Amino acid sequence: MSHTDLGLATDLSGQVALVTGASQGLGKACAERLAECKAHVVCAARSVDKLQATVEGIVAAGGSAEVVACDVGSKESIAEVFANIEAKHQRLDILLNNAGITRDTLLPRMSDEQWEDVIQTNLTSCFLCCRAASRIMMGARYGRIINMASVSGLIGNPGQTNYSASKAGMIGLTRSLSRELGKRKITVNAIAPGFIESDMTKALGDDILKEVKKRIPANRLGHPDDVAAVAVFLASPAASYITGQVITVDGGMTV
What we know:
The chain has 255 residues and is of the alpha/beta class.
């Protein structure tokens, strides 16, 4: 399934997009869809081997992309990525903050490190990337910032106090930043996926997935392209009057 199957079509020719966590899952799907819309996609993640596979697939399909190694847990690594993008491309039109981790356990057992790792990787990296991107976009008076939150940031989830807090923080960051940047023609929105097909959900096992599906009115798990379709729309000129919003992609689970 691709964005064309979903009836989406937008021309992002000449635009540069940065997608963090682009080596797999939602990040990979979003990078592929943005490239199909003719954006040049800077694919960032720690795993260069997996990133290379993403970029090779994009190029083989006629798109334009490049590999950038980035540890979003490192302030220095993030700063280097943005400096290189500005030096090489002189622009950044789209930022998709997708990189994230989980360190699940019940709160009484949660270590300081499990809390700090998730907050640093999911929330602090989003702040650092948004700050760096906003400085480039403000000069151009144009930009699209998309933060990949989660329904866990809206309703919480047992065993995920760290993850839910990080995603709720991303939502607050999104709403506040949208108010700061709106006059510069820069939109800032968040996507909150529910249960999406991935290696993580497969690991839950068939019995648990059957119970999960019972909680979803659509009676299925989401596909990465269901989320990527929303990202493409929010990145497009057509979404110029949408900012500060959290768009839930969960098959109706949180209705």
